[in-house]
Amino acid sequence: MAATIKDVSKDANVSIKTVSRVINNEANVAEKTKKRVLSSINKLGFRPNKSAQSLRSKRSFIIALLYDNPNKAYLADVQSGIFNACKLTGYNLVIQECDYKSSDLKKTIFEFVEDLKIDGLILTPPLSDMDDFLEYLDKHKIEHAIIAPSILKAESLYVSSNDYEAAYTLTSEIIKHGHKNIGFIKGHPKHSASELRFNGYTDAMQNYGLKKNNSWIKQGNFSFKSGFDAGVEIFNSIKIPTAIFASNDSMAAGIMKSAQMHGLKIPDDISLAGFDDSPIAHQIWPALTTVKQPVEKMANHAAKILMAKFDGLNEQSQPKEFKSELIVRESLKNLIN
Amino acid sequence: MAATIKDVSKDANVSIKTVSRVINNEANVAEKTKKRVLSSINKLGFRPNKSAQSLRSKRSFIIALLYDNPNKAYLADVQSGIFNACKLTGYNLVIQECDYKSSDLKKTIFEFVEDLKIDGLILTPPLSDMDDFLEYLDKHKIEHAIIAPSILKAESLYVSSNDYEAAYTLTSEIIKHGHKNIGFIKGHPKHSASELRFNGYTDAMQNYGLKKNNSWIKQGNFSFKSGFDAGVEIFNSIKIPTAIFASNDSMAAGIMKSAQMHGLKIPDDISLAGFDDSPIAHQIWPALTTVKQPVEKMANHAAKILMAKFDGLNEQSQPKEFKSELIVRESLKNLIN
DNA sequence: ATGTATTTTGACAACGATATCAATGAGGTA
DNA sequence: TACCTCATTGATATCGTTGTCAAAATACAT
Predict the structure, then answer these.
(1) CB A328 within 8 A of CB A286
(2) Residues in a beta bridge with A293
(3) Is residue A330, in this structure, part of any structural domain at all?
């Protein structure tokens, strides 16, 4: 039978309350007492009963990851980052898939949080940008950390990446390779990253004095198929660009496939660039020039600042922006010389 | 403030115990009483406090998914299948990444299960085949359902797919396309599927009177890189096969990349086949001939039979074998005529 | 009508922690 | 010594359920 506080208290010859104090690292326990209690805890292999803790103290040491049908690799990275943060602190992770369009999203999540006494949530796009949902969480004092929100509110916990800059840099890189006719595939309209990336592209084009051609700019939704379809449209048009920048790698892979089916060689006939550095970026040939986002690290940090908040630690609580890294691979042709 | 059993019992004018009986669907509650209680529950919006339930009854209505660094798409599918099963029953899902090589795997999982009062586990390969771990779970009466174990024990809960048959069928299909020189890339040695798939290949070759060539048979580990490396080796050898069957799609994609870098055209110079129908199978060009496993359905069923067991339902509890589906795409050339 | 079996119900303890608040002890001051 | 303060400790109530077991109500047989 597992040991209880009572057992420990007897063994250490103190009251159960004192043991509780030690467990919870409360102030005002004499050093000597604390040592004695800790050694009893160790000796008996005592681990607090989480249900009882949770019942009394209304917290569970569980955090939840909320997501809506994201890219699988992205989800796995996020999850892994959070999980590793949890391992350090002893928190557990439950996952909750949800439908951001559902009318009872709020109710579902509220009950989920209440029932499990979830200590806090981690939100991924597109939930990260649902203002009324975020407001609802605030109103009901449901703690949460947001991954990649579009609006960075100082008072909220979030991690973000420099999507705009990275897209600007990547576009510049394409231009520096001598390209002037550059198409763009937009991402999912509900993901804030889509707009940021598009803006990065737009501003770079403008600053280098290049003109955008609207027939080379297509709306996608981050899926392979949407990239493929966009590719088909573009390649069937009268004049095709020399390079296409897709807002993520899946769509870039879709374009690559449509190009290849169209008899176009990459990068000789058309250069491509993606975003995210998902596995597919280097699993196709030629490998994609792309931008690597430290997704796992971001998620890890999101979890850390969330949990730090529970423990009243504030030092780490600053929102943090993570830098992306440009990865130049074979899919981009140098037109100069 | 959320309503408690006490509130309901007052409202329905019964004892709290009777309310508890209704909540738990226990026998021997008069129909009339039950109705009255249910309507009070509804009226007050009562939801049982899980911490209290868990504390008293030692169950949590939580199941856990255990995995060790699998393919990301596979993980996402498994997770999604389980999650959908949970949604129907009101269970929650917590995920636990673990290291199958770790020496304190047992201890970690035991404490995890005890602390959270986890009702049951779902195991994915390679954990599905760790006999001493499974024995340990049995010994400590930790309920679990196993996805794709190699040894199908009648007394345990599992779901499996027909890897052997599917590999046999796919190999036959390759042979029927006129191929005689067929290479094979083995999967991760700790995953039982690896052996089954290899056996399917071996037996098909034998039954069609074809000889295996050991320099075309390479050990991989299901990763893209291991496929790539195997491809490099094979394509650098003096004589190359006309087709290669890789035990999964990632490795097949790896081979494809190495082939393309080697200047080989697919399927004209070399035919390829994979296994799993992961996203990459159709995101590359030419798309891979492969075998589609109903991973999500399998995981869904695993979760269902596990939860059915908790509720004493046995009807659904039969282990179930799921059938894979052959998907012929462009990566396989017909050599006949 | 009576006794017996069975169904239905409720009073109260228990699960294992934390919260409240009062009691104790140590240290300092007059 | 007597008094006060503040750190340390413990007795007991409490969180919201389910488990135990006995009482009450009902059904059934004689």
Answers:
(1) no
(2) none
(3) no
Does the pLDDT of residue A311 top 80, yes or no?
Answer: no
Confidence class of residue B332 from pLDDT cuts 50, 70 and 90?
very high
In which element (H, E) is residue A272 found? strand A271-273
Contacts of A47 in chain B (CB under 8 A): 111, 114-115
218-247 in chain A: CB under 8 A from chain B: 224
- B99-121 as b/e, with b when 16 or more CB fall inside 10 Å? ebeeeebeeebeebbbbbbbbbb
Mean pLDDT of chain B: 93
* Burial category of A205 from C-beta neighbours within 10 Å (exposed 0-12, middle 13-18, buried 19 and up): buried
Quick check: A315 pLDDT over 70? no
Other C-beta atoms within 10 Å of A313: how many?
12
Q: Per the structure block, which two tokens stand in for A337? A: 């010389």
Hey, what amino acid is at B170?
Answer: L
- Note whether B51 contacts A: Cβ–Cβ < 8 A: yes
Strand D nucleotides where any atom sits below 7 Å of a protein CB: 7-12, 14-20
What mean pLDDT comes out for the span A91-120? Answer: 94
A74 and A92 co-located in one domain? yes
- The parent domain of residue A24 ranges over 5-48
Q: How many other C-beta atoms lie within 10 A of the C-beta of residue A87? A: 14
Out of A93, A111, A282, the one facing B94 most closely (by C-beta) is: A93
Residues A168 and A313 placed together within one structural domain of the fold: no
Q: Are residues B176 and B272 in the same domain?
A: yes
Q: What is the CATH number of the domain that holds A40?
A: 1.10.260.40
On whether the CB atoms of residues A143 and A177 are closer than 8 A, the answer is no
Q: Which of A188, A238, A249 is nearest to A213 (CA)?
A: A238
Contact with chain B for residue A151, Cβ under 8 A: no
Asked if B129 and B191 count as a contact pair (C-beta separation under 8 A), the reply is: yes
Task: Fill in the DSSP letter of residue A276.
Answer: B
CB B305 within 8 A of CB B145: yes
A98 bridge partner residues:
none
Cα A12 from Cα A30, distance rounded (Å): 13
Q: Is B296 on the interface with A (CB under 8 A)?
A: no
Can you give the distance from the CA of residue B55 to the C1' of nucleotide D14 in angstroms? 15
| B157 and B300 in a common domain | yes
pLDDT beyond 50 at B315: no
Listed in order, strand segments (DSSP E) in chain B are: 62-67, 92-97, 120-123, 144-147, 157-161, 182-186, 217-219, 243-246, 271-273, 290-292, 320-322, 325-327
| One domain for residues A132 and A14 | no
Q: How many domains does chain B have?
A: 2
Q: Which chain A residues have a beta carbon less than 8 Å from that of B111?
A: 47
- Mean of pLDDT over chain A: 93
Whether B195 is covered by a domain: the verdict is yes
Pick from B83, B112, B283: which is nearest to A224 by CB? B283
Chain B positions in Cβ-Cβ contact with residue A281 (cut-off 8 Å): none
For residue B77, being part of any structural domain is answered with yes
Tokens 């198409």 sit at which residue? A183
For chain A, say whether B79 makes contact (Cβ under 8 Å): yes
Judge whether A180 lies within some domain: yes
pLDDT tens per residue across span A221-242: 999 999 999 999 999 999 999 9
* CATH code (residue B124): 3.40.50.2300
CB contact under 8 A, B55 and A49: yes
